[in-house]
Amino acid sequence: MIVYDLIVVGAGIVGAACAEAAAGEGLRVALVEPGPVGGGATAAAMGHLVAMDDDPAELALSAYSLGLWERYAELREAEFSRCGTLWVARNESELAVVPAKIARLAAAGLAAEVVDAQQLYALEPALVSGLAGGMRVPGEAVVYPPRMARYLVDKALQAGGQLFAGRRVTELLADGVRLDDGQRLSGPVLVASGLAVPQLLPELKVYPRKGQLVITDRYPGRIRHQLLELGYADSAHGDAATSVAFNVQPRPTGQLLIGSSRQVGVSDREISMPLLRQMLERAFAFLPMLRGLQALRVWTGLRPATPDGRPYLGQVPGRGQVWVAAGHEGLGVTTALGSARLLIDGLLGRTPAIDPIPYDPARALTREAA
Ligand SMILES: Cc1cc2nc3c(=O)[nH]c(=O)nc-3n(C[C@H](O)[C@H](O)[C@H](O)COP(=O)(O)OP(=O)(O)OC[C@H]3O[C@@H](n4cnc5c(N)ncnc54)[C@H](O)[C@@H]3O)c2cc1C
User: Fold this and answer.
1) pTM of the model
2) DSSP string computed for 144-211
3) Does the beta carbon of 169 sit less than 6 angstroms from any atom of ligand 1?
4) Angle subtended at Cα 261 by Cα 210 and Cα 127, rounded to the nearest 5 degrees
């Protein structure tokens, strides 16, 4: 039996980043993936690299990760485009929250600025008239997640890693894993299988938050920033079973990617036409010109969510040398690089750059026991 320093289960953006970080440290890495690399939630994502400031722990992980993404700003495979984020306020009361948001982002090392109505229309003339202003975060960007996952896996392989493509981990063993063809791999295990984590670690709850996206034909120059309504955080992190928010991205190809929706606990991949209509009406209300554009494709994806909205990053209590990196919900692309760094630092017994406690999977078990 081959002995590895780390067996990574799943090659989404999170597993790929962990495999790359581990192999880069000289660890002998095995990576197991039954489907295409980056073919899970990663393939469905918008690829917006964005800091959300409503949870301090998530903000810390996002800010750390955004810094790490900078090394790929010129990488062709990342398809990195620094469009910046423009958060849009419909009225004065929405605009009133902006200074506090800017202060929280600044404390995390991220620059943002208030935008008044005049500046808003100078930046994005296609927005509906009558908006109050907003907040611009100029350093944020978009990437193409599945291609980036492939790049990170290739880096891990170049550093000596081994990919078990088309293979699935069926069982955690005392000293490694068993694959679906009966092979056994020996070594510490990192479970990074997204929504499928409970199949191997039933003590860790991960549930789907389904999203739908629409992509248009090419219309270069119609918008320049990733545009979001300031109410987006309520949709992303609120308790509503179903919600939509205005969230539109200019792809480097000139296409527009239109989101977003959230459905809690729905695990089918069907397109919901009523929800799609609701999502598009929301987007049309902010960007009326979208009505006249040609949509090319609609797809759905399942965000892997945890009960408290924070990912599980760390060693799993009571499981020996088993680690987990999963449950990043709608921020897994943004936070993959920081998550990987945090995880590998923990594995190697180093002090990580940010406090790992908020992401410790032990919290889920403690809550269960309480
Ligand atoms: C519609 C939508 C929009 C999004 N937009 C953004 C965005 O703009 N910005 C952002 O930061 N995030 C976004 N996200 C979130 C992001 O896509 C996810 O958080 C992230 O992709 C999760 O990555 P992952 O590697 O944990 O999971 P996945 O990408 O799902 O990868 C898990 C992998 O594990 C494999 N696997 C499962 N079981 C096993 C097993 N037993 N053995 C081996 N392998 C296994 C699967 O095949 C899969 O490839 C979005 C998500 C959706 C759905």
Assistant:
1) 0.97
2) -HHHHHHHHHHHHHHTT-EEEET--EEEEETTEEEETTS-EEES-EEE--GGGHHHH-TTS--EEEEE
3) yes
4) 155
Is 309's C-beta closer than 6 angstroms to any atom of ligand 1?
Answer: no
Tokens of 247: 């969230």
Whether 146 lines ligand 1, by a CB cut-off of 6 Å, is no
Q: Which of 17, 38, 53 is nearest to 236 (CA)?
A: 53
Would you give per-residue pLDDT tens digits along the chain (370 residues)? Answer: 789 999 999 999 999 999 999 999 999 999 999 999 999 999 999 999 999 999 999 999 999 999 999 999 999 999 999 999 999 999 999 999 999 999 999 999 999 999 999 999 999 999 999 999 999 999 999 999 999 999 999 999 999 999 999 999 999 999 999 999 999 999 999 999 999 999 999 999 999 999 999 999 999 999 999 999 998 777 677 778 899 999 999 999 999 999 999 999 899 999 999 999 999 999 999 999 999 999 999 999 999 999 999 999 999 999 999 999 999 999 999 999 999 999 999 999 999 999 999 999 999 986 655 4
- Does ligand 1 lie within 6 Å of residue 179's CB atom? no
